[in-house]
Amino acid sequence: MAFERRVRVRFAPSPTGALHIGGVRTALYNYLFAKAHGGDFLLRIEDTDSQRFVPGAEAYISEALAWCGIVPDEGVEQGGPHAPYRQSERREIYVKYALQLVESGNAYYAFDSAESLSALRAECEGRGETFCYDARTRVKLENSLSLPAEEVQKRIERGDQWVIRFKMPECEDVHMDDIIRGHIVINTSTLDDKVLYKSADALPTYHLANIVDDHLMEISHVIRGEEWLPSLPLHYLLYRAFGWSDSQPLFAHLPLLLKPQGQGKLSKRDGDKFGFPVFPLEWHAPDGEVSMGYREQGYLPEAFINMLSLLGWNPGTEQEIFDMQGLINAFSLERVSKNGARFNHEKAKWFNAQWLHSKSDAFLAETILPLLAAKGIDTTVERAAAAIEIVKERATFPADLVDLTYNIFVAPASYDEKSVAKSWKAEDVENLKRLRELLAGETEIDAEATEAKVREWIIAEGLSIGKLMNTFRLAVLGVGQGPSIFAICAFIGLEETLSRIDAAIRTIK
RNA sequence: GGUCGAUUCGUCUAACGGUUAGGACAGAAGAUUCUCAAUCUUCAAAUACGAGUUCGAUUCUCGUAUCGACUACCA
Fold first, then answer.
1. Is the pLDDT of residue A1 over 50?
2. CA at A185, C1' at B3: how many angstroms apart?
3. What is the pLDDT at residue A262?
4. Which CATH superfamily is domain A1-74+256-358 in?
């Protein structure tokens, strides 16, 4: 690029509900790009639609980003040199710029009511046509281009409601560049006169607020979803109308995240109907509906971010596991793909398992201690960590660790019927009794030493290792599968091991 | 309907004119193990279609098809 300037990007969600994973990915790519270039990441809240405002949505967005480890340099919570970062608190700014556009002839007042326009739309549709507020139709509608100046003045003074519309050039090719998509040309004849400002609520629409704020906040790169591509020419023209073309940001339109099944882009309303969350955090909608979140499902933020980062971007190497710093180091917009991605829940689980396995036993013990307590298991971090070490690699979620360690902590209350049918034969039980005698002669159980001793004994006696081990496991755990039985016995101790064997011999028929 | 964008294994993707089209998840088989996982090995699996351009197209161009976005006083 011809000019060098500080990289400043923004994530600008509108608080109309929870942030879905597509939004989180957009925030993530913005963050990675900013950090990869030593720049700033801002969080701006675009609450210019008073109708769709949802209480709690903004707090949710901040909390979700924080959970992901995406911390804004400037924004609604942390403030900054361009505060306020909430568009509803910047009203005076937008009127000024909207009027400037009217004065320079790039925009005009329009008095048509929303009702009359939708009636017009319906009428056109009836004829199989599409209504478009543009150079062809605006002369016939009620606006400051068609009405005499005095009439316009009168209506405004009288307090009639009006909007300011952009005066789209009639027929002009707009040449645009997108970092991901390359050069794009669109002719203005296919575009309409978009509303920029509404007197009814004294608020701008997205288009105006967006351009004004990006300019004022010195945004260098706009990285947003592909759904914005059709309005890119409008934005180019707006920068030009303001005389800001030279400092206009560079654009990158990200491919969309698609619904896992069916068609269309992923939306907030998809909630959790696919059997997995679309939101980072559990979302309690104002209407009382609750949608599940990745955090509550047991995803580690690292895994969630890692999984999301690879949905539409790849490092060009075969590395798949990345922490945030690794992503920052590897990220580039040039390696973002052009096509929409369908989210794969199985792969997400795989990422979580990888990250879970990389965590320390102590860390995992801390996280599951409350879950264990809820199941009536009162233990220490050290004890839990020791149990986790035995089962860790077979878990995907922290909750799995609880299930996996439960019958290690708690002596079996019942015994798995299928396994009983398979390994609880009279001779197996007899052999188990003899194994009990052998163990009773020990002073303690050591995972390796005891196993070696028992194996030696089994071979000497000419018994089946598999059979005996299964019976042993069933007696101690109550189930037919699990980690090394000797590791478990070493964990619960000799006394508990013997008592569980006795209980099994007494109970199982 | 119009405008714009996209199209490689089931899914996420690599190969930026020359490869036996690579990897990962999921799937299958095997190894290992006291069992179940984990792990390791192996297998199966794709360039939407049709024309060009070229000595040579996954890659460039055009057309068709399909999918997607947008088409609001929503973002």
1. no
2. 11
3. 66
4. HUPs (3.40.50.620)
Confidence of residue A451 (pLDDT cuts 50, 70, 90): very high
How many contiguous H segments (helices) and E segments (strands) does chain A have?
19, 15
Residue A185, SS3 per DSSP: strand
Domains of chain A, residue spans? 1-74+256-358, 91-198, 359-409, 417-507
| N- to C-terminal Cα separation, chain A | 81
* Nearest nt by C1' to A317 Cα: B14
Is it the case that residue A330 has pLDDT exceeding 50? yes
Cis preceding-peptide flag for A84 (omega within 30 of 0): yes
- What 3-state DSSP class applies to A198? strand
Is the predicted pLDDT of residue A454 greater than 70, yes or no? yes
0.90 surpassed by pTM:
yes
The mean per-residue pLDDT over the stretch A303-314 comes to 97
Within 10 angstroms of residue A373's Cβ, the number of other Cβ atoms is: 11
Active site residue ranges of A: 268
What Å distances lie between residue A274 and A62, A147, A260, A311, A493, CA to CA? Answer: 25, 53, 7, 18, 45
Pull the structure tokens for residue A125.
């549709």
Name the nearest CA neighbour of A206 among A66, A87, A112, A291. Answer: A87
Structure tokens of A181?
């998509």
Token couple for A322:
């990345």
Q: Which residue, among A205, A212, A209, A220, has the nearest Cα to A243 in the 3D structure?
A: A212
Q: Separation of CA A33 and C1' B65 in angstroms?
A: 37
Structure ipTM: 0.96
Query: Could you tell me the two tokens for A432?
Result: 């188990």
The upper half-sphere exposure of residue A68, i.e. CA atoms within 13 Å in the direction of its Cβ, equals: 32
**pLDDT digits 0-9 by tens, A95-105:** 999 999 999 99
pLDDT per residue as tens digits for the range A257-306: 988 776 778 888 776 777 889 999 999 999 999 999 999 999 999 999 99
Per DSSP, the three-state class of A475 is helix
Instruction: Return the pLDDT at A271.
Output: 65
Q: Which CATH fold topology does A417-507 show? A: Arc Repressor Mutant, subunit A (1.10.10)
Chain B footprint bases within 7 A of protein beta carbons: 1-8, 10-15, 22-26, 33-38, 67-75
What's the mean pLDDT when you consider all of chain A? 94
- Rounded to 5°, the CA angle A70-A76-A80 comes to 90
Instruction: Return the CATH fold of A91-198.
Output: Glutamyl-tRNA Synthetase; domain 3 (3.90.800)
Q: Which residue has the tokens 């989180």?
A: A24
